[in-house]
Amino acid sequence: MAYCNALRHVHPLEKGSFAASLLFLSLLLKNPASSILVFALMSMVLLIGAKIPLFYYLKLLLFPFFFLLVSILVILFSVTPIDLKVLDVLTQVEIGNWRIYISSGKAERVSELFLSAMAGISCMYFFILTTPIQQMIWLLQKIRLPSLFIELFVIIYRFIFVLMNNMNEVRIAQTSRLGYRGMKRSFSSLAQLITSIFIKSLKTAQDVQRAIDSRGNNGDFHEVEVQQSYNKRNWLGIGCFVIIVSIVTFVF
Fold first, then answer.
1. Structural domain boundaries, residue 213
2. Distance CA 23, CA 17 (A)
3. Which of 62, 64, 70, 240 has its CA 20 to 30 A from that of 43?
């Protein structure tokens, strides 16, 4: 998706500055209104500006959404003995000698945390889905990150797709043999899937390392150059978005 979106030819520094500035604001301010605005703006830019398919974007949001949902549920609920008086109770359920309740203060903090996290995720998705790996490497080199960090980033980035491709191939093969028909068979196929992915990914990593060593790699990345040029309207738009989010924070 990073290589076929409508913003792939925009300069990586402009996209990185846009994502980083709104990410910094959403994490620093932790204001529900500004977080909702950042999420909405980033989603609009991805869907309308970058032409990312809506279903694809929603599918990507499901992974962090469920992870955050499980995390905030642990924070949201509190358990105390039923004879202990608790103030600021929003709702509660009594089970035996215990009270499970949600306080209004925790509900407010959890909502701020959830909205701030979703705003940050939308900023990260904007940068990932609109920036090819060559532009990412260029940007990391320009901000003077260590070569080891860039190398690890590229390897992890590459093996995410290798892992997903291996998982898809094995799952298709299992499904064609009715490997997920019934609960018992599904658990068995899932265990075999995890084992197969681990073995294939390890073999792929070894093959890649042998290929790198055979070419005399010394651990350094060659300097990457980009062909895109800066656009004044993009910088003006970034400034306007930052000002709008800041104004919404102070108003609400």
1. 144-221
2. 10
3. 70
